[in-house]
Structure formats: C-alpha cells, structure tokens
C-alpha cells in the first residue's frame, strides 16, 4: 500500500510539473482594435482585425504567423476613392518577460503587406457603383509590446510598410489554447 501511495504521489507530481510549462504547445489569438496611420496623404484612423497562431519554442519564446487586416478611412486624392484596406501576412516572434497567468511580451515580425482600395464610380456597362483594385505587395516590418492576462491579450504594434506608409494598431483579443 505504501508503494502504491508513493507511486501515485510521484505520478501526480510529474503531471503537475509538466503542466506548468507551455514549451512545445500551440495557441491562437483572435483580436480586433483601432488602427492609426502615421503617414500618408488623407489617411484616417480605422479598425483592424488579427488572427495569429503561435508555437512555443521555449517557456519564454514563441513563433507565430500573423494575419491582419486594417480598414482605414481615406480622404480621396481623387474624388471617387472611399477607403483603403491593408492586409498582411507576417512571421512573428514574441519574447515573454514573466511567467504565470499575467505575462508581458515584446515582439517583432516581418512579412508581406498589400493595399486594397475601393472606388465610388458608376460603371454603365456593368451597372456597378463600386470598383476596387490592388496596390503593390510590399515587404513590411512590425514591432509590438503587450500583455497577456489569462485568455485576454492586449497589444500595441507599429507596422512599417515600405518607405511611404506606416500605422499603429492597438488590439484586444482572446487566446485559444495554451
């Protein structure tokens, strides 16, 4: 009976100690927030949506793949342009400074950004009021800082797209997994 009790105690100890680390685990973040452009003629603040799966390489370091869309208002250079949508796919890395349920982090990333714009014009042949088009795909970079508290993630990021445009994004989201 003593051996069985000792074996049970050791198994419980092993289970609880391995449950305290998140190394080798996956998680995903889903978030939304406010985007503020810092450059660009006539660009106005808007909303952003983020989805990002992560893989923990160690207790304090995670790699991710971020998909973000930022819908920004636009004061047209031409009379018919309504708004701009920036989409990005970026490889990210986050370093966590603390352990536990409340964790602060600092992250960087690089990826591809593209601009999609909507025009307000009447097309007589197709009977359409709106047309759209894509801009060039550009290499971009991002830096971010944030806080994870339980399953809530709050982050502030700065996205640099090429030489002529950048924007800040403040997001809050929900963490699935971990």
Automatic annotation (TrEMBL):
Keywords: Signal. Residues 1-19 form the signal peptide. The keyword Signal applies. It comes from the Bacteria. This is Outer membrane protein beta-barrel domain-containing protein. It comes from Mucilaginibacter xinganensis. The lineage of its organism: Bacteria, Pseudomonadati, Bacteroidota, Sphingobacteriia, Sphingobacteriales.
